[in-house]
């Protein structure tokens, strides 16, 4: 079953990177028909469980196994936890299942650990931009008079990195609906969609900040971005000189200030 992330990667490879279905199938290990279906699908794959699965004997011991494997990071090679030693350990706690079940779960956890290490690979934000490839998004605030009352408006701002052309739209709140509508109106204003957009860890775009500052995009926003083949970059995922990034952020907030001043 394909995940939303895999669906996004397949669509980006086809529509943005220009790869054909055969190439994508070889690189991902997916069947040609599956890749073709994902390329043509404007919605992510959905999973429906056909029947209720029985609780696995290993279930109550999975947390303990993860804890033991996590200890391997600080242990010398010899005393590290392996599938056989983990099996003996959880059997003391009452596990009566098969050894093969433990081996498969240990292999799965190790695969997850390796993937987490790969995710820590440094990502660099380009400091020179090609036309139409990059944009930055942030929120600002402005005070307006509405129906005779002074209220604070939330200002959605998108700025193209190459031309510095700026779009600003006022909203009553920073809810996801406002965030998405701001994007749609900005794309209409610019006449297209940039390939990458950088976000300053906005709550509407980023679910949480994990240890190591790896942002996880909220699922609805991930689907939204994937549907238009947009690559999302959280500032906390990016290694870039603090001074340089502060200049970029200053450019965004400066755009808000200029808008308020002009009004």
General description of the model:
The protein contains nine helices and nine strands. It has 263 residues and is an alpha/beta fold. It has three domains: 4-40; 59-119, no CATH class; 134-262, Ribonuclease H-like superfamily/Ribonuclease H (Nucleotidyltransferase, domain 5, 2-Layer Sandwich), CATH 3.30.420. The strands form three sheets. It has a five-stranded mixed β-sheet, sandwiched between helices. A hairpin with a 2-residue loop joins strand 2 and strand 3. The longest helix has 21 residues, at 99-119. It is elongated. Mean pLDDT is 75; it is low at 208-214 and 235-263.
Q: Helix content range of the residues, please?
A: 40-55%
Oligomeric assembly = single chain
Main beta sheet: strand number and arrangement?
5 strands, mixed
E-strand count = 9
What is this entry, summarized?
The chain is α/β, with parallel strands linked by helices. The protein contains nine helices and nine strands.
Topology:
Elements: H1 4-15, H2 21-28, H3 32-40, H4 62-71, H5 83-92, H6 99-119, E1 123-124, E2 134-146, E3 149-160, E4 166-171, H7 176-190, E5 196-199, E6 206-209, E7 215-217, H8 219-227, E8 231-234, E9 238-239, H9 242-262
Parallel strand pairs: 1-9, 2-5, 5-8
Antiparallel strand pairs: 2-3, 3-4, 6-7
Please name the defining characteristics of this protein.
263 residues; two-stranded parallel ribbon; 5-stranded mixed beta sheet; elongated; disordered C terminus; 9 helices; alpha/beta
């Amino acid at each position: 079953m394909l995940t939303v992330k895999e669906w996004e990667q397949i669509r980006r490879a086809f529509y943005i990177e220009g790869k054909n279905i055969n190439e994508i199938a070889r690189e991902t290990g997916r069947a040609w028909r599956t890749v073709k279906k994902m390329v043509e699908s404007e919605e992510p794959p959905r999973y429906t469980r056909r029947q209720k699965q029985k609780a696995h004997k290993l279930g109550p011991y999975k947390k303990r196994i993860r804890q033991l494997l996590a200890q391997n990071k600080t242990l010398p090679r010899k005393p590290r936890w392996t599938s056989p030693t983990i099996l003996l350990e959880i059997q003391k706690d009452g596990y009566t299942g098969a050894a093969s079940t433990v081996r498969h779960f240990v292999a799965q956890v190790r695969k997850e650990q390796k993937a987490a290490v790969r995710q820590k690979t440094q990502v660099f934000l380009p400091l020179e931009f090609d036309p139409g490839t990059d944009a930055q998004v942030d929120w600002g605030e402005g005070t307006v008079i509405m129906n005779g009352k002074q209220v604070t408006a939330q200002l959605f701002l998108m700025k193209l990195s190459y031309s510095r052309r700026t779009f600003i739209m006022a909203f009553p709140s920073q809810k996801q609906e406002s965030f998405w509508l701001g994007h749609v109106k900005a794309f209409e204003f610019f006449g297209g969609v940039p390939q990458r957009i950088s976000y300053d860890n906005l709550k509407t775009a980023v679910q949480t900040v994990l240890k190591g500052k790896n942002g996880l995009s909220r699922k609805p926003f991930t689907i939204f971005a994937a549907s238009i083949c947009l690559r999302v970059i959280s500032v906390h995922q990016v290694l870039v000189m603090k001074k340089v990034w502060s200049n970029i952020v200053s450019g965004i907030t400066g755009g808000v200030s200029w808008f308020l001043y002009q009004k």
